[in-house]
Design goal:
Layout (H helix, E strand, L loop, with lengths): L1 H29 L12 H51 L3 E5 L5 E4 L1 H7 L3 H4 L13 H12 L3 E9 L7 E10 L11 E8 L10
Antiparallel strand pairs: 1-2, 1-5, 3-4, 4-5
């Protein structure tokens, strides 16, 4: 949207330049050199004057309409940026463990709760495979589970164990939603959105 606004501002500048060119051209046509001028303007000059004045008025109206549209686009951009910031804040501060990954389970984003659960800061999680936090003897089963999820729209209760480098392993349940690219979203690749909760000891055994 920022690029569109910049293009629109350039177009307004072009309108203004064209209007100045027309004004100069009008002055040259309607005010010829004294040696070529006559005491009375010809009908051709009068007609040309009317056409140029009309063209200038239409150009000014178009410039004003474009200015109004640019102002509206700027308001929409500001509103969108506020919504994006609000959504980002909700994601970061959510009490649930939330993360975004690609279809291979590579972590693209993780909120604070997820960072605390995995005992890792955001830079140490970014681009890391989620399978790294699965016990080595369960990673094949975990990857098979990922492949099954991609053939559906997601799962609501996928249970497995997360292995943490500086703490004991923890059993969790994950709700995973598959988000596929659409023209409206602007996304180019399929992503997985995860909501992870720690299981109570009394809950059912692990699936993975």
């Amino acid at each position: 949207m920022k690029q569109n606004l910049e293009s629109a501002n350039e177009l307004i500048a072009t309108f203004a330049q064209q209007r100045q060119v027309l004004l100069r051209h009008t002055a040259e046509v309607l005010c010829p050199e004294p040696s070529r001028s006559s005491s009375q303007p010809s009908s051709r000059e009068a007609q040309l004057s009317a056409i140029l004045v009309s063209s200038l008025e239409e150009l000014k109206v178009a410039e004003e309409e474009l200015t109004e549209r640019i102002a509206l686009l700027a308001e929409l951009r500001d509103d969108l940026e506020r919504r994006v910031r609000g959504t980002r804040q909700l994601f970061d501060l959510a009490p649930a463990c939330l993360l975004v990954s690609d279809v291979q389970g590579q972590i693209l984003d993780a909120n604070r709760s997820c960072q605390m659960m995995l005992k890792r800061d955001s830079p140490m999680l970014e681009r890391q495979p989620l399978a790294r936090f699965i016990p080595s003897d369960e990673r094949r089963s975990f990857r098979d589970g990922l492949a099954r999820i991609l053939s559906t729209e997601g799962v609501s209760d996928w249970r497995f164990v997360l292995s943490r480098p500086t703490d004991a392993p923890v059993p969790v349940s994950a709700a995973v939603r598959v988000v596929r690219p659409t023209g409206a979203s602007g996304e180019a690749v399929t992503k997985l959105f995860w909501s992870i909760r720690v299981l109570d000891p009394a809950e059912a055994p692990i699936d993975a």
